[in-house]
């Protein structure tokens, strides 16, 4: 996992496991109200919380290793996953005059009655 700073650079990197938060567990009582309060379209957080256990799953990232920061040095590898094989390709290069064609077509259409 990598967190970025305000300039878009890497601020901290760590490894983590992903766990689903159990609605009956103690973590749910601390995490769910904070998430409900931060929702813009959720309405009243107190009214929404009772409906969540059957409708959604909250996932939690738990750090499992050391943290790499700018002070300790980042690894030289990108940690990006390799793309999955796919038959999708770009068949041809986009024409360099695509905007010129669009403008010309638009000008022709605007001049018609």
Question: Main attributes?
Answer:
4 helices; three-stranded antiparallel β-sheet; two-stranded antiparallel ribbon; 113 residues; alpha+beta; 5 strands
Kindly describe this structure.
There is one protein chain. Helices cover 31% and strands 17% of the residues. It is of the alpha+beta class and 113 residues long. A 3-stranded antiparallel beta sheet has the order 1-2-5, with no helix packed on it. Strands 3-4 form a two-stranded antiparallel sheet. It is extended. The termini are far apart. The mean pLDDT is 78.
User: Please, what is the average pLDDT?
Assistant: 78
Number of strands: 5
Profile the largest sheet: 3 strands, antiparallel
| Coarse shape | extended
Order of helices and strands: EEEHHHEEH
Biggest sheet strand order reads 1-2-5
How many DSSP helices?
Answer: 4
Percent helix, as a range, is 25-40%
Structural class: alpha+beta
Report the end-to-end length measured between terminal Cα atoms.
Answer: 58 Å
Instruction: Specify Rg, calculated over alpha carbons.
Output: 24 Å
Low-confidence stretches are none
Please indicate the percent range of residues in DSSP E strands (runs of 2 or more). 15-25%
């Amino acid at each position: 996992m990598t967190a970025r700073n305000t300039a878009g650079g890497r601020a901290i990197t760590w490894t983590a496991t992903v766990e689903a938060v159990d609605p009956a567990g103690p973590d749910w009582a601390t995490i769910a109200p904070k998430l409900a309060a931060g929702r813009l379209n959720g309405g009243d957080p107190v009214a929404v919380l009772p409906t969540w256990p059957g409708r959604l799953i909250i996932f939690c990232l738990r750090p499992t290793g050391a943290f790499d920061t700018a002070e300790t040095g980042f690894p030289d590898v990108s940690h990006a996953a390799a793309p999955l094989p796919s038959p999708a390709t770009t068949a041809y290069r986009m024409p360099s005059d695509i905007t010129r064609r669009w403008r010309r077509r638009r000008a022709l259409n605007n001049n018609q009655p």
